[in-house]
Amino acid sequence: MSDVTPPVSSGEEFSLNDDRRVKTLSPGALVAKRFFRNKIAVVGLVMLIVMFVFSFIGGLISPYRQDEQFYHYENQQKEFAAATINKDFRYVNAEGQDFSSLLQAKFILAEGKGADSFEVKDVTYSITKEGEDLYTIYDGSTLLAYASKDIVNPSGDMSFDVKLAALKAYVAGESSFSAEGDDYSIDDAGQITSSAGDAGYITRLVVSSAQSGVKISKEFAEAVSVMIDSGNDEMDFTDADGEEQHYKVSYDASAMVYSIKQGKETYVYDSYAKPSSKHWLGTDTNGMDMLTRLMYGGRVSLIIGFIVVIIETVLGVILGGISGYFGGWIDNLIMRIVDIFYCIPSLPLIIILGAAMDGMRLDPQIRMLYLMLILGFLGWPGIARMVRGQILSLREQEFMTAAEATGVSVRRRIFRHLIPNVIPQLIVICTMSLGSTIITEATLSFLGLGVKFPFASWGNIINDVNNAFVMTHYWFVWIPAGICLLVAVLGFNFVGDGLRDAFDPRMKR
Predict the structure, then answer these.
(1) What percentage of residues in the chain have a pLDDT greater than 70?
(2) Which region among 26-35, 113-122, 331-340, 428-437 has the lowest average model confidence (pLDDT)?
(3) Which of 85, 186, 215, 477 is the least buried, fewest Cβ under 10 Å from its Cβ?
(4) Distance CA 323, CA 329 (A)
């Protein structure tokens, strides 16, 4: 029988106690294996992948920009003019005269009694009735003013004398009059004409424009008068440019005013448009595509979360590593700084800084940078304390004694030997912090203290829903942003829990 062991074939099966059956895994592979055995952690990882693809790739393939606004034409009723039927006397002062409110009150009392004069402070004023509802008031032989219920609407500058002569001719039923060397004609409708053309018109219907720079023509006033007299509430009128406009009139009984509104085709934001083939999630109050805003908003929220956590980690690792390694007065100093930061009321401070940035009217991009720096600067103490605690236990172990004995520099001992041993805990705490940072940014943006228009974030998208009507009628504006926040934060929390159990299997229940 031969003592030579036959060669082992590739298909040979090994016994259970054969060392060749043992498959050695690296620490990283072991962590990955434990992580992917955790179903909840895998679900969280899938959720994060979906959110990253949605935010970063979706924004690239979207046909719209995050600040692109959409418009449509809409027939809007805009306030054009107001009309009142004059039932009271109106007073027009003669050149250089002042017919005060006291004199007007005394005139009303005298006119009501049918008197031809009234007295004020031992001065007697005479009243002359020129016609129906037209009076002139004199101080001796000096004409002070006239009082009339009819109003002269001049098309240009018209002097007091011409207005008074026109009213006298109108109430007397005359067809012409002369004033200041010019001849005028007047018809039964009150239209005043001179050799130069239309000079004005007389009416009791006072139509005043609601828009500056717009003059009300006699024809329009007459059309309004006919509409009111006939009891209609709508009319069509062709203006001087030949364009036909549609008007609606409504009566305000409390103010005794007719409100005249003009219907105009107006180019307006396509606000709160419902989901359609063009806009899958509709539009917001500014007429922007909601799906595109969600994509870019996710990009902003995730970037802010990562940068804030990086700032926190860098500060926390450096200060925590120095504190834990050196101990003594350095440790006491850094820990007292940590205690001070824990005592800072973060939210009131951020509100104050947000108000200050509003007052300075900072560029939204600069403001976003400041927001990341502020959140990162306020969030490092927790990481510093965790790193310090880990290093306090690691620095007394044998490998650190060996590193010190071989003359390795302090910087190298901390950052090449101690910090790498803290990385598993850092990965877990940073992953868990990402979710809370995104929630913090969303809260600040919702309060108007974070990311500003035109940049989108999930927080300021929800901020647009600031009244109950929008919240109940336009679900597509805020529910998708809330779902994105929920999915992203849950994903980070699930992954953080999975990493914690993978790095330290003893924590798994």
Answers:
(1) 93
(2) 26-35
(3) 215
(4) 9
> Lowest-confidence range among 43-47, 331-335, 407-411?
407-411
**Residues 486-508: pLDDT tens digits?**
999 999 989 988 888 887 655 54
> Which pLDDT does position 13 carry in this prediction?
61
Which residues share a beta bridge with 74? Answer: 266
Find the length of the chain.
509
State how beta strands 123-131 and 176-179 pair: unpaired
Query: In what order do the strands lie in the sheet containing 71-85?
Result: 205-209, 71-85, 257-269, 244-252, 234-238
Is the model's pLDDT at 176 over the cut of 70?
Answer: yes
CA distance 247 to 261: 5
- Of the candidates 39, 146, 40, the one whose C-alpha atom is nearest the C-alpha of residue 97 is 146
Convert the pLDDT of each residue in 363-402 to its tens digit.
Answer: 888 888 888 899 899 889 989 998 888 888 887 777 777 8
pLDDT at 2 over 50: no
Q: Quick one: tokens of 114? A: 């049918």
Cβ-proximal residues to 228 (8 Å cutoff; 6+ apart), any chain: 83, 85, 205, 249, 258
Is the preceding omega at residue 275 within 30 degrees of 0, hence cis? Answer: no
Confidence class of residue 347 from pLDDT cuts 50, 70 and 90?
A: confident
CA 200 to centroid of chain Cα atoms: 48
H or E, element range at 342: helix 328-343
* Cα(104)–Cα(127) distance, integer angstroms: 12
CA distance 444 to 437: 11
Q: How far is CA 388 from CA 319, 327, 409, 427, 504, in A?
A: 8, 9, 19, 16, 19
Who contacts 39 (Cβ-Cβ below 8 Å, separation ≥6)? none
Helix axes 290-326, 381-394, angle to 10 degrees: 40
For the chain, list the domains and their CATH numbers. 27-70+280-507 (1.10.3720.10), 82-267 (no CATH)
Nearest CA among 295, 296, 269, 297 for reference residue 283: 269
Alpha helices in 361-457 (DSSP H): 364-379, 381-394, 398-405, 410-412, 423-446
CA angle, residues 347, 486, 461, in degrees to nearest 5 = 65
Termini Cα distance of the chain: 56
